[in-house]
Hints:
Elements: H1 12-20, H2 29-43, H3 45-65, H4 70-82, H5 84-87, H6 89-99, H7 106-109, H8 117-145, H9 153-162, H10 166-187, H11 190-196, H12 201-214, H13 216-235, H14 241-259, H15 264-270
Helix pairs in contact: 2-13, 2-14, 3-4, 3-14, 4-8, 6-14, 8-10, 11-12, 13-14
Amino acid sequence: MSLANPQAPHDPSDTVSQFSTIRDVSWRAPFSWLKAGFRDLLRAQFASLFYGVCFALMGWTIAFFNGASYGLTLAASSAFMLLGPILAIGLYHLSDQLEQGKPPSLRASLTVWRGNMGNLSLFALVSLIVALIWARASAVIFAVFYNTGLPSMGDFASAALTLENLEFVVVYFGIGLLFAAFIFAISVVAVPLMYDQKKDAITAVLMSLAVVAKNPGAMVVWALILVMLISLGFVTGFLGLIYTAPIAGHATWHAYRALVPPPAAERMRMH
């Protein structure tokens, strides 16, 4: 049973012990998480694809309202994906149910955030602020390097692929990488922790950073896999997100279970 009792008193020593027992995994481990995520998609197809459709709809909505400016669309889409860990909490719940041998419930997954609403809301707010800062920074970068007007999509793609405007490519993607790396580092296991163990937002973020620090090789591979999944969704006009977003969400749950040991009380029950 993975859900902690939200009414149980919090033992600070248990959190300390969890920091010291964060698991060290091989750089190959992310591939097993990806496989497990795909398996969960197949086992809970209806509920998983519901979330996938929601991700795709959000992408299409962003593109529709910013259709006149692909620069804003790129920034908003990137910002939207920075919020992915929060938006995928329902997928974590589905994987949790499957892990416990229970039938996955879409209805239950839609309200699971209520179990730790305060801390999840705080984390979502921080992520949203970072996402908005990146969206603004992206617009400023375009304005600085293309002060005669926004280039056509073809010109932008040419600059990115052929390195015609190397300074722009380095600055735009370099700053974007910093934002993405920051969000990845603080969120890689933070939301599953807040859902599963009812951790407060600060503790969850610190444990997420500790996981990254202890497993740099595996985290680089895992980040690349996530980028690949999301990129597949983007290059298909967001249609691919119907499948890639649920896989990423389910796989993130398995990454969390592989990296973070359960609380001491749960370990005692398991034995």
